[in-house]
Amino acid sequence: MDFISQHITSKDNSVIKNFRKLMTSKKERRLKRQFVLEGSRLVFDALKNNAPVTKILVTESALEKFCGELEKYRSREIIRISDELGNKISDTGNTQGVFAQCDFMEECGVLKTLKAHGRYAVLSGLQDPGNAGMIIRTADAMGLDGVIFSGSCDIYNPKVIRATMGSVFRIPVFSDIEEDDVFMKLSAAQIPSYAAVVNMEACDVKSVDFSNGGAIFIGNEGNGLSEKTVSKCTYSITIKMNGNIESLNAAMATGIIMWELTK
Q1: pLDDT tens-digit series, residues 41-86
Q2: How far apart are CA 52 and CA 104, in angstroms?
Q3: Distance from C-alpha of 252 to C-alpha of 135, rounded to nearest angstrom
Q4: Sheet containing 214-218, strands listed edge to edge, beginning at the edge strand earlier in sequence
Q5: What is the average pLDDT value for the chain, to the nearest integer?
Q6: Is 7 strand, coil or helix?
Q7: Domain at 108-262: CATH architecture
Q8: Could you tell me the end-to-end alpha-carbon distance of the chain, in angstroms, rounded to an integer?
Q9: d(Cα 91, Cα 209) in Å, to the nearest integer?
Q10: pLDDT at residue 104, rounded to an integer
Q11: Residue 243 pLDDT exceeds 90
């Protein structure tokens, strides 16, 4: 297999050490401006969507299965590693043996303009990586114009990336954007802002007219949106529920609101 650049079997190899640091440390990801991917679907989705993949690591067992697919990307650096190393660097319980190292997506950190009357989800103080990734995935499925992270978890956290199931490479995602900048860009694009709150006095999301687009602000899983953020939004909306249920999981609630936003 002439497209394999090297074969690594030692856990002390610099490539392996660097990969583990990027997997576990936000500080290291920010310093190197790189992040990591795990899983065949996620890695190949990144490659198909021209993500800035710099290295592909594949275990000896996985190489037999994915040899034909990998050969299409022989212009990238493809490294064979032992199955033992694959288990060592894995962040999942049952690795598929396909990993990648990727540069930061440059468009992620700069919010230049928003689409006029566009439809966006704004994550304000959201901290759970699984919720964040699922919201990106759902936003992609619903056809939103983008997802904006403001004071929320690290978009390059492996759990966020994995939960997006590749959607992070298909929909605009903006990371670490200051809240004031978000509101300024929304105003310029004539996009009304909607604070999602748990308050039965707020407007029922099912009765909201989203014909002029909208940015849905979703808050922290435990505390919701801050009062300051709610006061800055054009409207407050809620999901009116039956029975004794007080609130929904953040990703589930966001999915329901995004459905209404895009109807």
Answers
A1: 999 999 999 999 999 999 999 999 999 999 999 899 999 999 999 9
A2: 7
A3: 8
A4: 173-174, 146-150, 119-124, 214-218, 193-196, 235-238, 203-204
A5: 93
A6: strand
A7: 3-Layer(aba) Sandwich (3.40)
A8: 50
A9: 43
A10: 94
A11: no
Two tokens, residue 163: 């939960």
Q: 33: pLDDT confidence band, cut at 50, 70 and 90?
A: very high
Give the model's confidence band at 242: pLDDT under 50 very low, under 70 low, under 90 confident, else very high. confident
- 99 in Cβ contact with 70 (< 8 Å): no
Q: Which amino acid is at 89?
A: I
pLDDT in tens, 110-144: 788 899 999 999 999 999 999 999 999 999 999 99
The C-alpha atoms of residue 34 and residue 44 are separated, in whole angstroms, by 17
Fold type of domain 4-104: 60s Ribosomal Protein L30; Chain: A; (3.30.1330)
- Residue ranges of alpha helices (H) inside 13-165 are 14-24, 26-32, 40-48, 60-71, 83-89, 129-142, 158-163
What gap in Å lies between CA 174 and CA 152, rounded to an integer? 11
Domains 4-104 and 108-262 share a fold: no
> Where are the domains positioned within the chain?
4-104, 108-262
Give the pLDDT score at 245: 66
For every residue of 185-213, DSSP letters joined together read HHHHTT--EEEE-S-TTSEEGGG---TT-
Token code pair at residue 177: 């954007």
Is residue 136 within 8 Å of residue 159, measured between CB atoms? no
